[in-house]
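hey so i finally got around to running the thing on that chain from the lab meeting. sorry it took forever, my laptop kept dying and i had to restart like 3 times. anyway pasting the input first so we r on the same page abt which one it is
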Amino acid sequence: MNSKVLVAYASKYGATKEIAEKIGQVLKEAGHSVDVLPVDKAANLEPYGAVVLGSAVYIGGWRKGAARFLRANEKALAEKKVWLFSSGPTGRGDPIELVKGWRFPKALQHIADRVQPVDIALFQGAVFAEKLSAIGRWMIKNVKAPLGDFRDWDAITVWAGTIAAKLKNQV
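ok and heres what got predicted. didnt touch it at all, straight out
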């Protein structure tokens, strides 16, 4: 198996990008060759034996670029080890409880079922008022989402560590 790993992401304000970079850092520290790229720069999956794909979540859906990447690369991803993650809910507590059991966009679930990812994770995100547009501030206010950085770096590091261990066992 090719041990090179792609960590691809779609991020609007940078919080998901930072999660992807942390995952890439953990994988590199474990000895894996890793590229961390936005989905629109990750065109060729041939060099990679594994892919970690993540997206920021807005109103229950992935960013368009991440959804497009998943759809366009479904066949190639089905032949690789794949991990999927979403970032989005803000607030304290278990991220899955914060979003009432939501784990992955329903509109993409049929593709994920065919790709058969090793794992799907949901991480809390970060929302900063100064980065939001007027419409974004209005949306956050209406859904009463807490502002701030709620990312659980320990949970992200542990999850990335499980990926690194699983990949190391397959090399």
